[in-house]
Amino acid sequence: MDTIVSEKALRAFMERVFEKEGFAAPDARTIADVLMQADLFAIESHGAQRMMYYHKNIASGSVNVQAVPEIVRQTPVSALMDAHFAMGQLSAAAAMRLAIDKAKATGVGIVCVRNSSHFGIAGYYPLMAAREGLCAFSMTNTGPIMVPTFGREMMLGTNPLAFCMPADPVPFWFDASTTVVTLGKVEVYAKREKPMPQGWTIDENGESCADAQKMNRSILAGEMGGILPLGGEGELHSGHKGYGLAIMVEALTGVLAQGLLSPEMQGAHGDHTSHFFLAFDPAIFGDPAEIRAQMSRYLQMLRSSEKLPGHDRIFTPGEKAFEAQARRMREGIPVEEKTLLELRAIAAELGVEAV
Amino acid sequence: MDTIVSEKALRAFMERVFEKEGFAAPDARTIADVLMQADLFAIESHGAQRMMYYHKNIASGSVNVQAVPEIVRQTPVSALMDAHFAMGQLSAAAAMRLAIDKAKATGVGIVCVRNSSHFGIAGYYPLMAAREGLCAFSMTNTGPIMVPTFGREMMLGTNPLAFCMPADPVPFWFDASTTVVTLGKVEVYAKREKPMPQGWTIDENGESCADAQKMNRSILAGEMGGILPLGGEGELHSGHKGYGLAIMVEALTGVLAQGLLSPEMQGAHGDHTSHFFLAFDPAIFGDPAEIRAQMSRYLQMLRSSEKLPGHDRIFTPGEKAFEAQARRMREGIPVEEKTLLELRAIAAELGVEAV
After folding, report:
1. Which of A57, A173, A309, A350 is the most exposed, having the fewest neighbouring CB atoms within 10 Å of its CB?
2. Which residues contact A72 (CB under 8 A, 6 or more apart)?
């Protein structure tokens, strides 16, 4: 049974928690805003559900509450940040802010971050840029969960790629892992004790595996087998493309930022991740209002195109998320019972008012 | 039966043809170099096999031999080029050259091109940058062949994304369409009269279709049905991610360059395509030799990781291509009989020496 919590109450709770964890009020607001964006967009795996994960990382010292991310190298179009194991949301938001400012000054800004930590939904950061009329990318490496094409050892992370471009009535907002599914989906099937569809994971012998509980356990334990790349097993349905995209994300994050690589990280989410942010101003290519109108027109062409029998809508990436946000702002956010118990446990432990 | 033609002979033939078509000698060399790179990398669909396609486009005036691509807008980090319907290889190579020069001067260069034409393999252009120590992306829209998730009307192109980063012994070279397979693969199955695997295409009713001849015909005729996005049908195996990546490519090409959009183009390959090139210098983030060594080390980790039973190698993107190149430089390039007849027909028509 889900409990409905208002947007305002859940946000205030998260801010209370992160302030009590030791973050300055503006930083607590930033972290809460990233998590709230996930819950508002109905990406529950990355919202309140992750509070316990962050709480444990802070308690263990894996995340350093006192860390001040440092710019170690900079040009007018770029920067390299060492986050010194700060909360990922803080280093990532600061890095994207810097990329936006550089893009406004020069046309383009690229900022890489190393020694960061789990930064929430990748799509939060390009949306910051789109709100200011810019186009932007965001990527991160994570702990290893994906096997290479023809491999059975987890060597690549979820390695998401997000991109956002201004459009009306909602931006084009794309945020996708380069795995066929995220670990979160495997967890959901494991919790519900349901078999997974074939083609999501392979076991230690390289056999397609539908047993979610077994795979969830083996992935968290770092055993052989893992989640397949986007495109699935082998090359028949182009699994090598998802594998290649994941390496590209690793190249632009762990390698370029000279941080840890996915297979060098502890845990499925990854402890010391690296990020990549790129923002550019469409005004360097033409009238931004015309480019925005053209993008909006193209997205509408997609929505209006011929549907499959039994389907009355074609969605464009981001549409479902913004519709969920409008609904959840009005009606509140459903929080799962297990998550609610976790939030109450955190509140009790820290001595703050529960949600 | 394939005929083996030496690299030197095939290249010289292509150069003769393009000179006779009316291109200046350096331009003929550039076009031939892009096509030869495809044949050397064993991407036969984009090499000599495409000579007849280009020949027809030149004859019909769809490609303008006299066109001089024009820079219509420029900043130190960016440019917008109007190709005036030049050969795609010429506008693309000039645009990537400009992006490389800007990246060397400022750290990063982005160049968009509109009113171009089919530019060959997307991966040719980032490889130009990698040879000079830079990292680079290349993307293009094409004529419509892909259906949206939940749709049955072709609204998106092959829309490939290519990325290259220096590494040893071979660069990381990724070049992938955002469809589950290219139209070229459907053509190969149609020629061989073999059924395709399920999950590549859907027919006019939205049913998965294995009939390659039917689908090849209906795609070329612009009828309902088409090739599925990377990830396949619906959302179960994340077809919406391939669909989203394809829209991202369209956003960065047709929309940003303010050219034609895929569904507005004639023909499956697309007549008046737009391109996107981005190059950056890894030196803005650290010692380029160290970054290159780290990338090489990561790729070797992937190759050395645990293999599936029955597989003795894990490849990294580009490895197969560079191995094919070494072999074909030594042993020559296999040319299919049908292609050889086409090359001879072009030679006879233009009055140049055949291959």
Report:
1. A309
2. A80, A81, A82
What is the distance between the alpha carbons of residues B198 and A51, in angstroms, rounded to a whole number?
42
Both tokens of residue B212?
């390659």
User: Could you read off the pLDDT of A301-340 as tens digits, one per residue?
Assistant: 999 999 999 999 999 999 999 999 999 999 999 999 999 9
User: pLDDT tens digits for A209-226?
Assistant: 999 999 999 999 999 999
Q: Within 13 A of B286's CA, how many CA atoms are on the CB side?
A: 23
ipTM of model: 0.98
| C-alpha–C-alpha distance, residues A247 and B107, integer Å | 23
Q: Does residue B310 come out as left (phi exceeding 0), alpha (psi in the -120 to 50 range) or beta?
A: left
- The SS3 assignment for B5 reads strand
Residues of A in contact with B245 (CB under 8 A): 174, 176
Instruction: Give yes or no for a contact between B152 and B204, defined as CB atoms under 8 angstroms apart.
Output: yes
Distance from CA of B155 to the nearest CA of A (A): 7
DSSP character string of B114-167: ES----S-TTHHHHHHHHTT-EEEEEE--S--BPPTTB-S--B----EEEEE--
Q: In A41-118, which ranges are continuous DSSP H helix?
A: 51-60, 88-106
| Cβ B351 vs Cβ B20: under 8 Å | yes
CA distance B315 to A155: 13
Could B308 and A206 be called an inter-chain contact, meaning their C-beta atoms sit closer than 8 Å? yes
H-helix segments, chain A: 7-20, 25-40, 51-60, 88-106, 124-130, 183-191, 212-220, 239-250, 288-304, 319-331, 337-350
How far is A57 from chain B, CA to nearest CA, in Å? 27
**Alpha-carbon separation of residue A233 from A92, A147, A149, B113, B117 (angstroms):** 33, 10, 7, 36, 34
Q: Name chain A contacts of B238, Cβ cutoff 8 Å.
A: 176, 180-181, 230
Q: Sort B256 into a burial class: Cβ within 10 Å, 0-12 / 13-18 / 19+.
A: buried
